[in-house]
Protein backbone atom coordinates (compact mmCIF):
# COMPACT_ATOMS: atom_id res chain seq x y z
CA UNK A 1 0.00 0.00 0.00
CA UNK A 2 1.19 3.52 -0.81
CA UNK A 3 1.43 5.99 2.04
CA UNK A 4 -0.14 9.48 1.91
CA UNK A 5 3.31 11.09 1.53
CA UNK A 6 4.03 8.94 -1.52
CA UNK A 7 0.75 10.02 -3.18
CA UNK A 8 1.66 13.71 -2.70
CA UNK A 9 5.14 13.21 -4.17
CA UNK A 10 3.57 11.40 -7.12
CA UNK A 11 1.51 14.54 -7.86
CA UNK A 12 4.64 16.72 -7.74
CA UNK A 13 6.57 14.24 -9.88
CA UNK A 14 3.79 14.17 -12.46
CA UNK A 15 3.86 17.99 -12.77
CA UNK A 16 7.63 17.92 -13.34
CA UNK A 17 7.45 15.03 -15.80
CA UNK A 18 4.72 16.70 -17.90
CA UNK A 19 6.67 19.98 -18.07
CA UNK A 20 9.85 18.11 -19.09
CA UNK A 21 8.05 16.32 -21.92
CA UNK A 22 6.37 19.57 -23.04
CA UNK A 23 9.81 21.16 -23.40
CA UNK A 24 11.14 18.10 -25.24
CA UNK A 25 13.92 17.20 -22.78
CA UNK A 26 15.10 13.68 -21.98
CA UNK A 27 16.14 12.60 -18.47
CA UNK A 28 19.77 12.54 -19.64
CA UNK A 29 19.56 16.17 -20.81
CA UNK A 30 17.96 17.26 -17.53
CA UNK A 31 20.68 15.40 -15.63
CA UNK A 32 23.30 17.61 -17.32
CA UNK A 33 21.31 20.79 -16.52
CA UNK A 34 20.58 19.97 -12.87
CA UNK A 35 23.74 18.00 -11.94
CA UNK A 36 21.39 15.28 -10.57
CA UNK A 37 21.62 11.66 -11.74
CA UNK A 38 18.97 10.19 -14.06
CA UNK A 39 18.11 7.71 -11.28
CA UNK A 40 17.35 10.57 -8.86
CA UNK A 41 15.27 12.44 -11.45
CA UNK A 42 13.33 9.28 -12.31
CA UNK A 43 12.59 8.61 -8.61
CA UNK A 44 11.24 12.17 -8.21
CA UNK A 45 8.97 11.82 -11.25
CA UNK A 46 7.67 8.45 -10.02
CA UNK A 47 7.01 9.82 -6.52
CA UNK A 48 9.30 7.18 -5.02
CA UNK A 49 10.03 8.77 -1.63
CA UNK A 50 11.48 5.45 -0.35
CA UNK A 51 14.42 6.00 -2.72
CA UNK A 52 15.44 9.09 -0.69
CA UNK A 53 14.97 7.57 2.80
CA UNK A 54 18.72 7.91 3.56
CA UNK A 55 18.95 11.42 1.97
CA UNK A 56 15.57 12.82 3.01
CA UNK A 57 17.08 16.20 4.00
CA UNK A 58 18.31 16.63 0.39
CA UNK A 59 14.93 15.93 -1.27
CA UNK A 60 13.62 19.52 -1.10
CA UNK A 61 16.86 20.78 -2.73
CA UNK A 62 16.63 18.17 -5.50
CA UNK A 63 13.02 19.12 -6.30
CA UNK A 64 13.94 22.84 -6.22
CA UNK A 65 16.77 22.31 -8.76
CA UNK A 66 14.52 20.28 -11.02
CA UNK A 67 11.65 22.80 -10.84
CA UNK A 68 13.95 25.79 -11.50
CA UNK A 69 15.55 24.04 -14.48
CA UNK A 70 12.08 23.50 -15.99
CA UNK A 71 10.90 27.06 -15.28
CA UNK A 72 8.40 26.02 -12.59
CA UNK A 73 7.95 28.26 -9.53
CA UNK A 74 9.21 26.13 -6.64
CA UNK A 75 7.04 28.04 -4.15
CA UNK A 76 3.96 26.47 -5.78
CA UNK A 77 5.29 23.03 -4.80
CA UNK A 78 7.00 23.89 -1.50
CA UNK A 79 4.07 23.46 0.96
CA UNK A 80 2.92 20.16 -0.51
CA UNK A 81 6.49 18.83 -0.57
CA UNK A 82 7.08 19.85 3.08
CA UNK A 83 3.85 18.07 4.11
CA UNK A 84 4.98 15.00 2.16
CA UNK A 85 8.37 14.86 3.88
CA UNK A 86 6.85 15.45 7.36
CA UNK A 87 4.22 12.73 6.86
CA UNK A 88 6.84 10.23 5.74
CA UNK A 89 9.14 11.13 8.67
CA UNK A 90 6.25 10.66 11.15
CA UNK A 91 5.42 7.22 9.70
CA UNK A 92 9.05 6.12 10.10
CA UNK A 93 9.15 7.42 13.70
CA UNK A 94 5.98 5.49 14.66
CA UNK A 95 7.32 2.23 13.22
CA UNK A 96 10.62 2.70 15.11
CA UNK A 97 8.73 3.25 18.39
CA UNK A 98 6.73 0.04 17.85
CA UNK A 99 9.92 -1.93 17.22
CA UNK A 100 11.52 -0.49 20.37
CA UNK A 101 8.43 -1.41 22.44
CA UNK A 102 8.58 -4.99 21.13
CA UNK A 103 12.28 -5.28 22.03
CA UNK A 104 11.65 -3.90 25.55
CA UNK A 105 8.74 -6.31 26.08
CA UNK A 106 10.86 -9.32 25.03
CA UNK A 107 13.70 -8.30 27.36
CA UNK A 108 11.29 -7.98 30.32
CA UNK A 109 9.82 -11.45 29.64
CA UNK A 110 13.28 -13.03 29.55
CA UNK A 111 14.35 -11.30 32.79
CA UNK A 112 11.23 -12.61 34.61
CA UNK A 113 12.00 -16.20 33.55
CA UNK A 114 15.57 -15.86 34.84
CA UNK A 115 14.35 -14.64 38.26
CA UNK A 116 11.97 -17.63 38.62
CA UNK A 117 14.79 -20.12 37.92
CA UNK A 118 17.19 -18.68 40.56
CA UNK A 119 16.99 -20.33 44.08
CA UNK A 120 18.19 -19.15 47.56
CA UNK A 121 21.40 -20.67 48.96
CA UNK A 122 21.05 -23.60 51.40
CA UNK A 123 21.75 -23.41 55.18
CA UNK A 124 24.50 -26.04 54.83
CA UNK A 125 26.42 -23.83 52.44
CA UNK A 126 26.21 -20.89 54.90
CA UNK A 127 27.75 -23.03 57.65
CA UNK A 128 30.62 -24.09 55.36
CA UNK A 129 31.26 -20.45 54.44
CA UNK A 130 31.64 -19.48 58.15
CA UNK A 131 34.12 -22.30 58.79
CA UNK A 132 36.18 -21.34 55.75
CA UNK A 133 36.35 -17.68 56.84
CA UNK A 134 37.52 -18.68 60.36
CA UNK A 135 40.35 -20.83 58.93
CA UNK A 136 41.47 -18.03 56.63
CA UNK A 137 41.63 -15.54 59.52
CA UNK A 138 43.74 -17.97 61.57
CA UNK A 139 46.19 -18.48 58.67
CA UNK A 140 46.50 -14.73 58.13
CA UNK A 141 47.35 -14.19 61.83
CA UNK A 142 50.19 -16.78 61.68
CA UNK A 143 51.61 -15.21 58.51
CA UNK A 144 51.54 -11.76 60.15
CA UNK A 145 53.58 -13.03 63.15
CA UNK A 146 56.18 -14.65 60.87
CA UNK A 147 56.48 -11.48 58.79
CA UNK A 148 56.94 -9.27 61.89
CA UNK A 149 59.70 -11.52 63.30
CA UNK A 150 61.58 -11.60 59.97
CA UNK A 151 61.34 -7.83 59.65
CA UNK A 152 62.96 -7.29 63.10
CA UNK A 153 65.92 -9.54 62.18
CA UNK A 154 66.51 -7.82 58.83
CA UNK A 155 66.26 -4.28 60.23
CA UNK A 156 68.93 -5.07 62.86
CA UNK A 157 71.44 -6.24 60.23
CA UNK A 158 70.76 -3.31 57.90
CA UNK A 159 71.50 -0.68 60.59
CA UNK A 160 75.23 -1.70 60.85
CA UNK A 161 77.38 1.14 59.42
CA UNK A 162 80.16 0.60 56.90
CA UNK A 163 83.50 1.29 58.73
CA UNK A 164 85.03 2.83 55.57
CA UNK A 165 83.43 6.12 54.63
CA UNK A 166 83.30 7.29 51.02
CA UNK A 167 85.30 10.50 50.88
CA UNK A 168 83.21 11.56 47.88
CA UNK A 169 84.50 13.10 44.71
CA UNK A 170 84.07 16.47 43.06
CA UNK A 171 84.44 17.22 39.38
CA UNK A 172 85.78 20.64 38.45
CA UNK A 173 84.48 21.97 35.15
CA UNK A 174 86.74 24.67 33.66
CA UNK A 175 84.93 27.90 32.83
CA UNK A 176 84.95 29.03 29.24
CA UNK A 177 86.40 32.43 28.51
CA UNK A 178 83.52 34.71 27.41
CA UNK A 179 85.99 36.79 25.38
CA UNK A 180 86.72 33.83 23.09
CA UNK A 181 82.99 33.32 22.47
CA UNK A 182 82.50 36.98 21.58
CA UNK A 183 85.46 36.80 19.16
CA UNK A 184 83.96 33.78 17.43
CA UNK A 185 80.60 35.58 17.16
CA UNK A 186 82.35 38.59 15.59
CA UNK A 187 83.96 36.40 12.96
CA UNK A 188 80.60 34.95 11.77
CA UNK A 189 79.25 37.07 8.91
CA UNK A 190 75.58 38.01 9.02
CA UNK A 191 73.53 36.38 6.28
CA UNK A 192 70.58 38.28 4.93
CA UNK A 193 67.35 36.33 4.46
CA UNK A 194 66.18 36.31 0.85
CA UNK A 195 63.07 38.39 0.32
CA UNK A 196 59.97 36.48 -0.70
CA UNK A 197 58.58 37.58 -4.05
CA UNK A 198 55.35 39.53 -3.76
CA UNK A 199 52.28 37.63 -4.90
CA UNK A 200 50.48 39.10 -7.88
CA UNK A 201 46.90 40.11 -7.04
CA UNK A 202 44.34 38.40 -9.24
CA UNK A 203 41.80 40.46 -11.15
CA UNK A 204 38.20 39.20 -11.03
CA UNK A 205 35.72 40.79 -13.44
CA UNK A 206 32.12 39.93 -14.20
CA UNK A 207 31.68 38.78 -17.80
CA UNK A 208 27.99 37.90 -18.02
CA UNK A 209 24.87 37.34 -15.95
CA UNK A 210 21.71 35.56 -16.98
CA UNK A 211 18.95 34.97 -14.43
CA UNK A 212 20.53 33.16 -11.48
CA UNK A 213 23.76 32.30 -13.36
CA UNK A 214 26.80 34.57 -13.42
CA UNK A 215 30.25 34.14 -15.04
CA UNK A 216 33.45 35.82 -13.77
CA UNK A 217 36.78 36.03 -15.63
CA UNK A 218 39.99 35.78 -13.58
CA UNK A 219 43.07 37.53 -15.01
CA UNK A 220 46.64 38.48 -14.01
CA UNK A 221 47.43 34.94 -12.81
CA UNK A 222 50.73 33.06 -13.13
CA UNK A 223 50.79 29.61 -14.73
CA UNK A 224 50.97 26.63 -12.32
CA UNK A 225 50.55 28.85 -9.26
CA UNK A 226 47.88 27.68 -6.84
CA UNK A 227 44.45 29.29 -6.72
CA UNK A 228 42.54 28.83 -3.45
CA UNK A 229 38.76 29.29 -3.40
CA UNK A 230 37.10 29.49 0.03
CA UNK A 231 33.33 29.23 0.45
CA UNK A 232 31.87 30.56 3.72
CA UNK A 233 28.28 29.59 4.47
CA UNK A 234 26.16 32.02 6.48
CA UNK A 235 22.95 30.23 5.46
CA UNK A 236 22.41 26.50 4.94
CA UNK A 237 22.65 25.44 1.30
CA UNK A 238 23.02 22.24 -0.72
CA UNK A 239 26.09 23.02 -2.83
CA UNK A 240 28.11 21.19 -5.48
CA UNK A 241 31.48 22.06 -7.08
CA UNK A 242 32.49 21.33 -10.70
CA UNK A 243 36.06 21.71 -12.00
CA UNK A 244 36.51 21.72 -15.80
CA UNK A 245 33.10 20.06 -16.23
CA UNK A 246 33.73 17.27 -13.68
CA UNK A 247 31.86 17.28 -10.36
CA UNK A 248 34.30 17.14 -7.44
CA UNK A 249 34.25 14.40 -4.81
CA UNK A 250 36.23 16.61 -2.41
CA UNK A 251 34.49 18.70 -1.35
CA UNK A 252 31.51 16.50 -2.14
CA UNK A 253 28.05 17.85 -2.91
CA UNK A 254 26.04 18.09 0.32
CA UNK A 255 24.13 20.47 2.60
CA UNK A 256 26.59 22.94 4.18
CA UNK A 257 25.15 24.42 7.37
CA UNK A 258 25.62 28.01 8.58
CA UNK A 259 29.16 28.42 9.97
CA UNK A 260 30.68 25.69 7.78
CA UNK A 261 33.39 26.27 5.16
CA UNK A 262 34.58 24.51 2.00
CA UNK A 263 37.69 25.06 -0.10
CA UNK A 264 38.88 24.14 -3.61
CA UNK A 265 42.59 24.39 -4.52
CA UNK A 266 44.18 23.77 -7.93
CA UNK A 267 47.09 24.84 -10.16
CA UNK A 268 46.10 27.55 -12.62
CA UNK A 269 46.36 27.13 -16.41
CA UNK A 270 44.72 28.91 -19.33
CA UNK A 271 41.03 28.03 -19.65
CA UNK A 272 40.69 26.51 -16.15
CA UNK A 273 37.14 26.80 -14.77
CA UNK A 274 35.34 26.27 -11.46
CA UNK A 275 31.56 26.22 -11.09
CA UNK A 276 29.75 26.41 -7.73
CA UNK A 277 26.03 25.59 -7.63
CA UNK A 278 24.12 26.85 -4.57
CA UNK A 279 20.64 25.69 -3.60
CA UNK A 280 20.28 28.85 -1.47
CA UNK A 281 22.68 31.70 -2.24
CA UNK A 282 21.60 34.59 0.02
CA UNK A 283 24.43 35.78 2.31
CA UNK A 284 26.99 33.10 1.42
CA UNK A 285 30.49 34.38 0.53
CA UNK A 286 33.36 33.39 -1.78
CA UNK A 287 37.06 34.26 -1.35
CA UNK A 288 39.87 33.81 -3.89
CA UNK A 289 43.39 33.67 -2.44
CA UNK A 290 42.10 35.30 0.75
CA UNK A 291 40.36 38.20 -1.05
CA UNK A 292 36.55 38.41 -0.90
CA UNK A 293 34.92 38.23 -4.34
CA UNK A 294 32.46 41.11 -4.75
CA UNK A 295 29.46 39.31 -6.24
CA UNK A 296 26.73 41.02 -8.22
CA UNK A 297 24.11 42.28 -5.73
CA UNK A 298 21.30 40.41 -7.48
CA UNK A 299 23.20 37.13 -6.97
CA UNK A 300 24.70 37.81 -3.52
CA UNK A 301 21.27 38.32 -1.93
CA UNK A 302 19.33 35.80 -4.02
CA UNK A 303 17.18 33.62 -1.71
CA UNK A 304 17.17 30.82 -4.26
CA UNK A 305 19.20 28.63 -6.61
CA UNK A 306 22.36 30.23 -8.13
CA UNK A 307 25.29 29.10 -10.30
CA UNK A 308 28.60 30.99 -10.14
CA UNK A 309 31.39 30.21 -12.64
CA UNK A 310 35.03 31.38 -12.59
CA UNK A 311 37.14 31.15 -15.80
CA UNK A 312 40.91 31.78 -15.86
CA UNK A 313 41.99 33.67 -18.99
CA UNK A 314 44.81 36.11 -19.78
CA UNK A 315 47.58 35.22 -17.36
CA UNK A 316 50.31 37.69 -16.26
CA UNK A 317 53.43 37.97 -18.47
Entry keywords:
317 residues; 44% helix; HTH cro/C1-type domain-containing protein; 11 strands; DNA binding; 8 helices; transmembrane; Cro/C1-type_HTH; 4-stranded antiparallel sheet; transmembrane helix; 434 Repressor (Amino-terminal Domain); alpha+beta; 7-stranded mixed sheet
Fraction of residues in β-strands: 15-25%
How far the N terminus sits from the C terminus, by CA atoms, comes to 68 Å
- The total count of strands amounts to 11
What is the N-to-C succession of helices and strands? HHHHHHHEEEEEEEEEEHE
The stretches of 5 or more residues where confidence is low (pLDDT under 50) are: 160-167
What structural class do you assign from the helix and strand content?
Answer: alpha+beta
What is the number of helical segments per DSSP (H or I, 4+ residues)?
8
Helix share of residues?
40-55%
Largest sheet: 7 strands, mixed
- Gyration radius, in Å: 39 Å
Q: What is the residue-averaged pLDDT?
A: 81
Instruction: Note the overall shape.
Output: flat
Description:
The protein is of the alpha+beta class and 317 residues long. Among the domains are: 4-90, 434 Repressor (Amino-terminal Domain) (Orthogonal Bundle); 203-312, no CATH class. Helices cover 44% and strands 19% of the residues. Strands 1, 2, 4, 5, 6, 8 and 11 form a seven-stranded mixed sheet that branches. A hairpin with a 2-residue loop joins β9 and β10 (291-292). α1 (4-22) packs across α3 and α1 runs antiparallel to α5 (75-117). The longest helix has 43 residues, at 75-117. The two termini are 68 Å apart. Residues 160-167 have low confidence and may be disordered. One of its GO terms (molecular function) is DNA binding. InterPro entries: Bact_Cytoskel_RodZ (IPR050400), Cro/C1-type_HTH (IPR001387), Lambda_DNA-bd_dom_sf (IPR010982).
Amino acid sequence: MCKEGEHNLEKIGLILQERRKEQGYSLEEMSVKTKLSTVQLSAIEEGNIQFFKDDLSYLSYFVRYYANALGIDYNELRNELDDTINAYTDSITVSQIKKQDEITSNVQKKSKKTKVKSKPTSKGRKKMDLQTIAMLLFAIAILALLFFGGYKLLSGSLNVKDPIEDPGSTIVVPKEDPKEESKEDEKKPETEKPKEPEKVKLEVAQKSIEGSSVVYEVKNWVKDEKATFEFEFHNASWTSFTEDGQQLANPAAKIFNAGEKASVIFNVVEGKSLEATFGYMNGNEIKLNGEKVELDASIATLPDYATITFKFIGGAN
